[in-house]
User: Fold these one by one.
Assistant:
Number 1:
Amino acid sequence: MRNEFAAELNEIAAEDERVVLLSGDIGNRLFDKYKASFPDRFYNCGVAEANMMSVAAGMAICGLRPITYTITPFTTTRCLEQIRVDVCYHNVPVIIVGVGAGLSYAGNGATHHSCEDIALLRMLPNMTVICPGDAWEVRAAMRACLQQDKPAYIRMGKKGEPLVHEGMPDFAIGKGIVMRRGSDVCLLSTGNMLPNVLEAAEELSKQGVSVQVVSFHTVKPLDEELLAQAFSQFWVVATVEEHSIMGGLGGAVAEWLSDRAPQKARLLRIGVADKFLHEAGEQEYAREYFGLTPRAIADKTFQMYQAVAPQPVKA
Amino acid sequence: MNKIADLEATASKIRGKLVELSHKARTAHLGSSLSCTDILVAAYWGTLKIDPQDSENPDRDRLILSKGHAATTLYATLAEAGFFPPELLDTYAEPGSKLPEHPSVKCVPGVEVATGSLGHGLSVGIGMALAGRIQKRSYRVFVVMSDGECNEGSVWEAAMFAPAQKLDNLVAIIDYNKWQATGRSNEIMALHPLKEKWEAFGWSTYEIDGHDMKALVDTLRNVPDGSGKPVAIVAHTVKGKGVSFMEDDNNWHYRVPNAEEVEKAKVELKLL
């Protein structure tokens, strides 16, 4: 996702002279072209994310469209108060881009994991939270956020994730994208889990379950229309995210659901357990550890489906 | 430019208002508000290129009160300068008022940035100063901070970043009144030597008496100062300045004056 982010950045900066990039001393070589094209609109803010976030807010207050970029925990939890006070309270259009969200940089250890950021940022008034499902959604999200005159957070994976779209999708903030249609269970995937969720849907279909998959890229604002349909139509609605099961997409949907009359569908939250991973291991290992592989997603979903469907299905 | 004596009279008038507001609304931070009054008066009447009737002009100079707990000083200054009707001041801190105990976002014309959590204003000011450079505007950004605020690590992130960007349109003014909420600022943290710290971080530094109106105006008006660096002014001040029984007594960080004390203060300020 990050290479496509850099490529799209070059395009939007050429189209909109308000765009300014602030980097927290990462992205070595990634922005060479951008820096060469827009030398007065690139700021390496050093390893000082609190300052970077407030600087971005000051720029946005003065009419610019700053984009902050660094590794996810450092541009979210590290400087949460700066986001809250300077960006969200002032309601100014800073676009916060986190790279390496969730377990993308698992091998670097828990300091570099980010499984709390969706919860923390969606709690802030005025904030939009977008977790693109692939590099095409990253590009589309950047353009959509630039059209808004308010704060936004784009939560990216790393590089080289599989593409699920064939080109720029029809993308609107707060509107999920249906990736495949089905009638028994609905998997709401947010962020970089999308390829695994699509694979899980394949596995489930082999077990006779008809699966709908949605790229539920915007966690805030929630696509309430889609949720209302899904909970009235399916037996199981499962949220899948590379984020804590607390407070992320699953938490947001649970909150939404709790204020409504009983629905047909049961909610299943699939995500990262409430614990740190202390061991070494890359993203694939971490996903195995937390049960986020296609097989694990399919198994959890199938169990819930078996428990609630009127005619139990044989495994 | 206004005469120094006029500015001093304006500062006295504003100090009287601060004492009244604290008494009426029963709010804290009077000592902190009194210590930075001369700084704000020197800025608004002697330095800033800003028209109260055109307070959103993109070319205006900007002032951020980063020590947001001195909100009454900012409110009373802006009201006196004509940014908003002075009657509004009397609603300060009342339920539903536009004027909370720390300045909120665009609560009244002239409030550039909402503050209250310390250690934000300087970085926001850097963003504004850089925006001016990017947009080819010649305005300056003044950030008024407290000495206690310099406890915050974010201040020193900003202190390293602004000189790297050679931001000569940015001014940090530290209202060095030697106290923070619960003790001496140089005992709670090793603040001293403050001017040398800023100098070592790459700023063009000045050390002045923060109640000497002429020194304040001369130093503030001289920005950019030709050094190519951001300017840091360590302004030595007295907490509670202008009211003898409040001066350098940190009880007035939280204490609220009673009616008799308001009267005595106004006599000392030559307002009665």
Number 2:
Amino acid sequence: MSAQGAEPQPNYLTAGQSVRSWLLTIDHKRIGLLYMVSITLFFFLGGAAATLVRLELMTPKGDVVQPETYNKLFTAHGVIMVFFFLIPSIPAVLGNFLVPLMIGARDLAFPKLNLASWYVFMIGGVFTLWAVLTGGVDTGWTFYTPYSSMFSNTSVMSAALGVFIVGFSSILTGLNFIVTIHKMRAPGMTWLRLPLFIWAMYATSLIMILGTPVLAVTVALVGLERFFGFGIFDPKLGGDPILFQHLFWFYSHPAVYIMLLPSFGVINEIVPCFTKRPVFGYRTMATAMMAIAALGFLVWGHHMFVSGQSMYGGLIFSFLSFFVAIPSAVKVFNWTATLYKGTVSGTTPMLYALGFIGLFTIGGLTGLMLASLAIDVHVHDTYFVVAHFHYIMVGGAVMGYLGGIHFWWPKITGRMYPEIWGKLAALTIFIGFNLTFFPQFILGYLGMPRRYYEYDAEYQVLNVMSTAGASILAVGFLLPLVYLILSLWMGKEAGPNPWGAKGLEWEIPSPPTVHNFDEPPVAPERPYDYPLKEQDREPS
Amino acid sequence: MWDFPLFPEQGSAIAWRVDAVFFFELAICTAVTIMICFLILYYATKYRRGSRADRSNVVTDNHLIEVIWVGVPLAISMVMFAVAAVVYFQMYRVPEDASEVYALGRQWMWQIEHPGGKREINELHVPLGQAVKVVLSSQDVIHSFYVPAFRVKQDAVPGRYTSMWFRPDRVGKFHLYCAEYCGTDHSRMIGWIHVMEPADYQQWLESGGPTEPMATTGAQLFKSYGCSGCHSPSSTVRAPLLDGVFGHPVPLEGGTVVTADERYIRDSILLPMSEVAAGYKPVMPTFQGRIKEDELLKIIAYIKSLGRKNERVEQ
């Protein structure tokens, strides 16, 4: 494809092999890999906690662990998965790797800040892990007051401090991306020629720098109350416990979009590549992501319909929540329309993308049900909510992450993963996921509350199904870990552009050289400029 | 083994409405999901690589189509919002004829007290067909009073009163759960709602020895905590008389007016400086930490009873 590919220049992986060259690297590609290794570790730790939770829930009575342990396990699962896997996942791994490549830049705007953000992330992570592994935390990932501030005897503050610290890594990454996207685009790379992945990163970064400080403030206030007796959330001191929920969800609802928008970005790259046609409605897709980022800040109160919020508060938040669903719906329709008259190939990334669209649709629509006041009063804090957000977080965010990892694996490592194993794993995850979480919708409508260590016997069959699904899901997640690592030695050479994809990152060798582009790249005239053919007669 | 429920029983007047909204939305959501999945699979098959399907005139932008698929979902979702909001409104507004019962959440049990003084733990007996308003509070952390068969749920929040109501329309025994995570034994903070025929309910109320009505106990507490020292006609300290206050507007220092509801009475006892009635000096000491949660409820019940006495006089 490109002339540089043949040059014997060292790529970013071979340039410097020492530990020091990795730990002190300011190359955005290596930092992306540092993040990949760290969050994979966190993912499997969080997954181990989930496995124990599902084992406990096989039977109605508590038998595998003690109730205290169970509460610590679901808290560990939530805290690790949300703050240390989902939020950093796509932005910190794929975003770090791809943002400069996609816009034709040498690196991010602030390479040292980028490395610092990884260290901040690791410090926060180690802090929280230490709290979770030594004492444990039993507040749930939501840290509701006054339980967290005055009643829990567990290591709440060290875990919360870890979350506080890790927030700064989000802020630094977000800041870096925004500056990079504004100032470092290659000549000709205008806003409307940006790949949609970049738009997704931009929207995500905005939420990160606007929302994360609120989380930091909230955690700081809990600390002030716990240590110095400031009356903020504790009613005995004149505080208001519901204020905490407002502050917490003011960050944590937009945080759902921090986890989801990057997946939208990934799907926006995968779908055009494997339909070999431009994405349908480029401008609408970009606008929709920006609209989600903005509207996402206006709906936090839908987590609080039964908290004692006023009826009119409930009405307004319900109303606004329906609005935030519209841009997501439009994206689903546009992806579907992109398949129309495309040339669809069912590679592993495409399987993840199609799975994403289906599961995200279910997650989004059950979100509408939860935004509906009368229904939410019944299903709030039940397994219906658990099922809904796992359809969004796993069916949406994780499927997007895995799709993206497979799609750019050849670019990142220079090697192909084994396609047959890739498809098998994608299928296993899809089946395991649905078996795990679909029964939970029924459980929730039946009335089984979440975070229950023991439950009534009538819920057992559905819980056993869910646990069975979880074991399939676990196998599905372990498969890529094995074959992706093996592919580093056994995979066949990928070459610069194994998918025939469009985009600047595919015009340079795989793995890229340290400098990314040896000559200043020129942006293509249109994003996703796949040649359109009347009839596709290529042999399959 | 295969004999397990897939749908919760309906035990209250509101339950079928909630279910109706649910099935209405489920129908829409299922239709959309099937449509999307069908189109994805259909297009992915028809336009698979190597197929001879016609691919002429690929459209990459069509504003009309996009306006339609912004507009139609928006319209449908507004209908969903409205339908659910109407039923929510019905769930929220307590009917006039509702009888009251107090539920105090604490780690990890529900303490329930009927106005007549009858007390229960983790069980609530109610008569069939009678609307019941549950006034909720919490002694420690947030709990949530959840009766799946009635489709109602409300958090019990420390430091304030919340309430919910239901009108049971089937005799039987229904699950009561704590739905808000509250610590180690959260999943054991469960109980039963017993819906009884009115006659059986009367019999149950009268069983188990005589009880003191909450208002009577409240009157004794009102004296023993020294409230009556100031809030009585013979007092030398100028404090508002509380007869007939409950449920009526109270003008505050600074011009605002609040309704003297459970919250206001509670805050006036625990945080007396926060909302001082107009024309009075802020001299009342706080009772924070001295009065227990269940005692507060009794004092409130007493002040409520003063209000009712007064109204009867007005009539």
